[in-house]
Amino acid sequence: MRKHPPRRKPQPVTGAYEEFMARAYTMELEAIERYAQFAEQLDTHNNREVASLFRKLSQVESLHAKRILEEMRWPSMPALGPAYAWDGPEGPETAPFDALHYLMQPYHALQIALQCESQAQQYYESIASSKAPRRVRTAAAEMAEEEREHVRLIRAWISKVPKPAEGWDQDPDPPRMSE
Amino acid sequence: MNAPLEAVPLTAKDFKSDYKPVWCPGCGDYSVLSAVTKALAMLNLRPENVAVVSGIGCSSRIPAYTTCYGFHGVHGRSLPAATGLKAARPDLTVLVASGDGDGYSIGGNHFLHACRRNVDLTYIVMDNHVYGMTKGQPSPTTEPDWSSKLAPGGTGLREFHPLVIALASGANFIARAFSGDPNGTANLIAEAIRHPGFSFLEVLSPCVTFRPEQRQWKDRAHPAPVAATDDPVRAARRILTDDGFNIGVLFRGKRPAFKTGGAAATHSPDDLAAAFRL
Question: What ipTM does the predicted assembly reach?
Fold first, then answer.
């Protein structure tokens, strides 16, 4: 059985701003984890190009998460109350599990990323225009702007990869067993 | 050195093993695995206090992907193994993972009696209405008109209704989840574990390889419009008349769980080996 390394006990969040930032951090963590899971799934199915793209996306999200921790001077993730109480089934920046196909191409992966970034942008915009405390609204507006920039970057990236031809998901020798 | 570690809650990641799942990309079972690990973390459990028991099939791979104790048994026999384990080690939280083929066909009889016995187990069945691992044969929950290469024109057989069967057989907690909602599924798993007795959680978990049309389940799944009941008659009416996509707790019974002795068995491995000696 795996031994668990010592770690610091999470500190509870103390105010609306901290709560907002903790949620932002949770959102990034969920996205990091999901992209990493996608990379593993496609590695298993020998789609290395898309696996590496998802790994890259996971790394990008890790940088965002790290920045939040540094900004808040948190040594680690703080303890949240209802950590997973998102409006949808998962965080706005988390791609759904069923988004994958073993023959998918970079274009498809980037479309998934585009959707996630757009949802994150909308999430922050909705908070920025809500009746939340001013500090939260200011932070949300900044984050919405960041997400808008990510949307632009992903769109630019999409324009550089080939659009899949019709029938991209047709496999003349389909894998009927996954091993 | 150990004492402070005990106080620190684990995260979902701590319940994931280093083995990488080999399910098809997009499979609902990834989400169920994620939900199981989240639920265990949510309940502040530790891997050494949890056992995951399974039979055969795609879904039955789950024990290897967790850091808990695991038992990957024979086809359809996860429930007897889990029942024995819980009887011998009532201190463990025992989860049982299965699929619609393993759980309702090969293991169908064990399902009835596990519900009847009401041992404190949490039975998670990942239902995709098909035998995925063995190349897409119709399972007990396959729709009668689902036509495939292996069943042209469909089987014409009425599908099995596991939730009603569970209720009629005495399961103490019945819920339906959808893998498209991993956090909701995690909450339901946590509730099922907390509820005493036999808890049955059917998870609609699409098979994207043999039933790609099940990707549309996300448009059909919806929260159960009414709260759970403890009245089996009301629950039966509700389950029989729902559309099969009601997500949530549908029945929360009050039967006391089967008493398993209250203390862990003290037999040594040598005692057990002696008992099996011919």
Answer: 0.82
